[in-house]
Design a protein that fits this description.
This protein is mainly α. The protein has a single domain, classed as Amino acid/polyamine transporter I. It contains 18 helices and no strands. It has helices at 7-16, 25-36, 38-41, 46-79, 87-94, 97-127, 135-152, 154-178, 191-194, 201-212, 232-261, 264-267, 273-281, 284-318, 337-351, 356-384, 401-441, 449-454. Keywords: Membrane, Transmembrane, Transmembrane helix.
Length: 466
Amino acid sequence: MEQNTPPNELEEKTKESHLMKVLGPMHIWALGVGIVLVGEFMGWNFTIAKGGSLGAIIACWVIGILYISLVMINTEMGSVMPEAGGQYTMAKYLLGPLASFNVGLMLVFEYVMLEAADALVVGQILQSLHPDVQALPYIILSLLFLTFLNYRGVYATLTLNFFITAVAFITIFVLLFGTKFYSPTESLLQINQLTNGLPYGWIGILAALQFGIWFYLGIEGTALAAEECRSTSRALPIGALVGFVTLLIGATITWFVCSGLVGAENLGESVYPLYDAALATGKPFVIVALFIGTILACLASANGCINDSSRAWFAMSRDTLIPGVFAVIHPKYRTPYRAILFLLPISIAFGFTGLLDQVITFSILSALLVYVLTAYMMFKFRAMYPIGTIERGYVAPWHPVPALVLFVLALATLGGMYLGYWSNMLAGFVFYFLASLWFTMHRSKFMDTKKFIEAGIGRWPRPKGY
């Protein structure tokens, strides 16, 4: 058992282990949108295969309701828990060690798997240039470069993410205006001829919800940067909420353009739907723009995933839920460099399985389990700390409606996932069950309970009814 540290020494060590506060709303937008935007360049189109063209857009908007609820909940709790870890930190204060261990692990795999999916798409789009192109060296070099950026500091990393995400987002509008959608006589869009409605009925919409998440998956990761914000109560709500609006606009345009340029059967199987839509226009400038946009979106997403997964892993290590070797911060750059370096080869390994929909499914499953627990945590948070008992940087309106919506839609999406990927779900549940057994039977013996609990003392009042 690790020796308990005296309170004064613990306070000093806690200060030393804190990350630098350098981020503003722009960086939070770049983190949230940067991770998610790749979902508009790939992955979302599997909703077409599951629910048809109409099922896809319905899934997009229904899942949009899920995510606006999630963003509001995360922003309220995250604004008063300014520590790296996001939903892990929420679980730490509200649910205890075993639940927070699972939430942290789920967050890590959500982003590691998403990073792997990014690597898969980069490889396949490079190979589309010529069959002799070897994608592996480019992918490894890209991920090594992004890892190096994260190693050197979060400010430069997310500043770069802002610019490459903005350029990738603009290319969606290049494609939109390249179709001349505004001219009935010159428009290239053929929505009526290429869409297929609801071929599987309402059950298809339920099945499509799983991949509708890909339009927004990762926006909740903005809460993971709470500790590094100059003003958490300002940067987190502005960056996250503006980011969600950005994604909702981009998602709707993406469905509209792709459905009007690529037939539903081909669209439902495409690895890079926006690029395929650009090819369908036959315009070289649009094709080049979307090629660049797809690559940049993948890089921005991978960059954000490295940031978020490492913060969750670092936070778990700092709280002694996993070995403390990953809690070390670089003395010069003030980054959790060991966590960053440790997760890189894991992501690369999953990326080169070549199973894009399987990798996406495990990422989505991990995220949905976090969402269900987040909805529960919101009820517990409001019960423990009613309005007025603790200072909040943001208050989610209409409570408990957002938490109920999040809970119901997350469960519905899990039900839809079961229809096509029940074996993947079973494997995921078995993995997290075995991880829980490992923690309960082995790792909990080495946990420093005092360090885990006292990190928040001095900032938190006693809960109601304590």
